[in-house]
Amino acid sequence: MNMDKAMELGRQLQSRQLLTVETRCSQSDLEWLEENGFVIRTPAIERTANGLTCGRCGVSHKRYFAFSPCDVCQKDCVYCRSCIMMGKSTECGFLYEWTGPQMKETCHTKLTWYGDLSKGQKRASDKMIEAIKNKYDLLIWAVCGAGKTEVLFHGIEFALHQGMNVCIATPRTDVVLELEPRLKKAFKELNIAVLYGGSPQRFQIAPLVIATTHQLLRYKNAFDLLIIDEVDAFPYSIDERLHFAVIKAMRKKGMTVYLSATPSKKMRKDVSRGQLEATKIPQRFHQKPLPIPSFQWIGQWKKKLKKNRLPAKVLTWMQKHITKKRRILLFVPSISIMKKVTKILREHRLNVEGVSADDQDRKQKVQHFRDDAYDVLVTTTILERGVTIPNVQVGVLGAESTIFTESALVQISGRAGRHPDFFNGDVYFFHFGLTRSMKQAKKHIVKMNDSAEKECGLN
Fold first, then answer.
1. pLDDT confidence bin for 459, thresholds 50/70/90
2. Which are the contacts of 341, defined by CB distance < 8 A and separation ≥ 6?
3. pLDDT at 458
């Protein structure tokens, strides 16, 4: 192998931690790179006196490991079940890291977004640039619809001009797909990699990366600035592997910007104790208050569903808005209920579609909903974040269900009233009993509106 080929492989391997098959290199090339000090390899699964540890996702509990026949070692080989969706990490396998010359793209790209920031957005944007300059972590606590993505633009531009590698990571593929066109429009001349399960760009290198948090498992010592959008969202909020992935993907002197409308109690405590810097945007970019949810008791709605019926109050609410040519997002607790409700609404001759996390066509369905192809979209919590649809009204069927946490209900409520021409969105929680989460979500929204009014004279 010559140096030119080695450097080309380096562009593929740099800042990554990849299984042998993922390097897309022949075994002889990998051996040459290792002998000449361009790569190091470490066990994909390490066995110690204390047990097994996966080098990629960091898990060490025995429940994550199992045996299966292996084509490489021709034995029953230990593999990691925790990160199997990223490719099979086995005890006989290795992870490769580039240790040769670091190759950086010179980036002089200019921001091609020329919009205006609100007072709150401008304050947060300036704070982000200050955090990048002084290398400290920052929480941007902004209400749903505050325009968090636009707040990032000037900070990303500043970081890129400093030669920093930037990544925006978010727990959900749907949010990645929402961010992609907005970032590509804001940085038209910039090479941007977009990474998620099944992404055709999965191994692309770029100064700016937009990725699901799961994709960070393939990176090591890669990013100077890591922006975690929707930091409170499932699965990142409860999955220690993803926290491990973030730490591993960061460079030693890197820094993190967290974005959230509903930060966790721990994060809020860290802010109050001075352990985490924060800036708050309590108002939406159009300066109008957040829609406050209304509570509507509907009795034993699940019994009605079994009889192929929906509560009359739900149907009346929907018909009222459809008559006025307003679209409706109806959130439900599960996929089975989504399918049942969609079927019932079709029987009522409503123009309706349903989506969920296991729906391969959900991207197209959401776009069709934006394009007025149907009046009602019945959805699970998969669309609680990252989706902006003008003039949409929001309902939650079975708001008392445990899946509808305070955070989820705040985010769901935030789907309404986002557009400046349709800021009076309607939000209804249809329930069979008030829950603490419902009350806390309403209290949270009212409190943010009060903060915005005090700070900005919101009306």
1. very low
2. 305, 310, 330, 332, 354, 378, 397
3. 44
